[in-house]
Amino acid sequence: MKGSMQNGCCAILALLAAISTYSCSSSKPAPAPAAETSAPADEAALFQIPQNQLEHLKIVEVRKAAWSTTVRTTGTVDWDADHTTQAITQVNGPISRLLVDLGTSVAVNQPLLYVSSPDVANAIVTYRKARNHLDYSKRALDRNQDLLDHKVIAQKDFEAAQQDYNDAGSDVENSLQALKIFGVTQQEVDDAQRQGVPINPQLAVRSPIAGVVVQKLVSPGLVIQAGMTACFTISDISTVWVQGHIYDRDLESIRIGDAVEETNSSFKETFHGVVSYIGALVDPATRTTSVRIVTRNPQGVLKKDMFVDAVIHTRSGRSVLAVPTSAILRNDENLPFVYVQAAPGQFAQRLVNLGAQQGDETEIMSGAKEGEKIVAEGSVFLQFANSTR
Predict the structure, then answer these.
(1) Could you please report the per-residue DSSP string of 203-254?
(2) Which of 143, 164, 304, 385 is most buried, by the most CB atoms less than 10 A from its CB?
(3) Which of 279, 297, 316 is the last residue before a domain boundary?
(4) Same domain, 106 and 218
(5) 3-class DSSP state for residue 363?
(6) 214 with 337, same domain?
(7) 112 near 100, Cβ under 8 Å?
(8) What is the total count of domains within the chain?
(9) Would you give the DSSP letter of residue 298?
(10) CATH of the domain at 100
(11) CB 379 within 8 A of CB 352
């Protein structure tokens, strides 16, 4: 490593010495070439670099590039409403047990709390009565079938028994559906029937989705109301929404599906999202239109109400003249310029007007033309040579 640095320094010193020597030897009075006398005001006279030193310079052409328009904005993190929901009970009664707390990861249908509810007890009683009636009507139907086969009863008596059996079956289905709505699973019903034990009248309020408990809205012993009391808010935080704000001048460029890069000064990583919605109205306070950016958040780093900086890469492309950013230097007046190669080994400064920057390239608004050759690397040596002319 040390040896390579010494070699690099020696090469630089040799180049500077050669440039200085060549500049001094070229300082004799001579008629100015036509190119110098007609040079524009923003372009200095030509100066030459020894042929054996040109290998230290990287020459590139000013080229046309197709750039996508980028829009910069700020945004606020929010939960993904498409993957966020509240757990609401379907029965009345006091909470007997809480099973989860804030930040708990839950699976679909995982119990969150238990409610001691008279509604569940009444539904269980109704279901058991319906099952008893179904069993009785089935035995009655079997007896009537035997009597009908021996021509002891009339056909209408058998049909009446059959109708009673069908009605009992409908009652069982209706009462079973009520239990399912309350959250009593079919497995719990089957187990209770098989074991001959009563079904637990405590109702489990279950998680409707897989995610993380982001809000806890109840406490033990609280009496909750069916369909009204929200117990928890569950959100899948692997994705979040970033609410951005776009000014009128940028709205035309943005489309649904545009890729977005988001950063926060507190984190090293860059987050990636996609524009999924563009608002239909302008905020009268900020005079901006909201955009929704669905953002991947695999580590759960982004939190609700956090601020991020967003760069929207639109699909509205434009053609620009681009040069490597390393080719841009500034003079004593802080004006940007590039070194243009007029002929092999001959260079001159050229003032340029800069536009946007994308990646490692910078847009040239004026001062250079497509196809002109400029110095992309090694400009520092040229700057020294020009200063010692």
Answers:
(1) EEEE-SSSEEEEEE---TT-EE-TTT-EEEEEE-TTEEEEEEEE-HHHHTT-
(2) 385
(3) 316
(4) yes
(5) strand
(6) no
(7) yes
(8) 4
(9) T
(10) 2.40.50.100
(11) no
Residue count (the chain)? 389
Per-residue pLDDT of 225-250, as tens digits, reads: 888 889 999 999 999 999 999 999 88
CA angle 299, 300, 301 (to 5 degrees): 90
Cα–Cα distance measured from residue 341 to residue 325, given in angstroms and rounded to the nearest whole number: 17
Q: Which residue has the tokens 């950016």?
A: 293
Q: Is the pTM of this model over 0.70?
A: no
**Which structure tokens are listed for 319?**
């053609």
The per-residue pLDDT for range 52-88, each reduced to its tens digit, is 677 778 888 888 887 777 889 999 999 999 999 999 9
Return the CATH number at 141: 1.10.287.470
* Nearest Cα residue to 92 out of 215, 209, 185, 222: 222
- Helix count (H) and strand count (E) of the chain? 7, 22
- Tokens for 23, please give them: 């500049």
Tens-digit pLDDT profile for residues 262-320: 999 999 899 999 999 999 999 999 899 999 999 999 889 999 999 999 999 887 777 88
The identity of residue 313, as a single letter, is H
Q: Do 210 and 45 meet the contact criterion of CB atoms below 8 Å apart? A: no
For residue 40, which of 326, 337, 378 has the smallest C-alpha distance?
A: 337
What residue numbers bound the domain in which 146 lies? 118-200
In terms of Cα–Cα distance, which of 172, 188, 183 is closest to 226? Answer: 183
Cα distance between residue 195 and residue 198, in whole Å: 9
Q: Locate 177 and state its tokens.
A: 């559906």
Q: How far apart are CA 47 and CA 33, in angstroms?
A: 11
**Closest residue by Cα to residue 340 from 316, 295, 382, 375:** 375
